[in-house]
Amino acid sequence: MRIAYINFYSMENVYRAGVLITDESTRPVEFRVTSNLDVDRLQEILYGEALQEVLYKERFTVQLLNALQEDYDIVLTKEKSLLSIRKEIDKPVVHIQKYDPFMPLNRLSHKVINIHDRYEPLYITVNKEDENRLVSISHQLQDMYRNFNIMEPFKRVEKALKYIMESEIEAERADLSVR
Q: What is d(CA 166, CA 170) in angstroms, rounded to the nearest whole number?
């Protein structure tokens, strides 16, 4: 199963998104990033707490997924609000998080465990459109989770975004010092 991991990073009011497609052993297949999006103070004030959700859903995710050249089976995200993009793409979107025993279970969610206890239990949720595929997706993720930490690629995307943004800042500073 190929997974498209979507993640986001912000630094000093500059936002960026990245997507990493991995194979069943979490090896990279394709990586794409957005360009920087600068958010000014007025936008922060006007959007308030909704700013990140608006940026992630409306400005980054769908465009980034549509730009991918390689095929993937599911989108894995840590942002629950992205479940709603399922209507705009033709792939299941799966929200994944650490399992909390006090979290209410429902028909759109499933627990994923590592049978060797190497990694902590996870909790996945799908959009209503994929309710009939939940068990299949859960089993496929569980099979991968036996040998690979399926949460780790999120860190790779975040580190890559941070590296790109910091490299661009360093290049700008070097360019300014040359002038």
A: 6
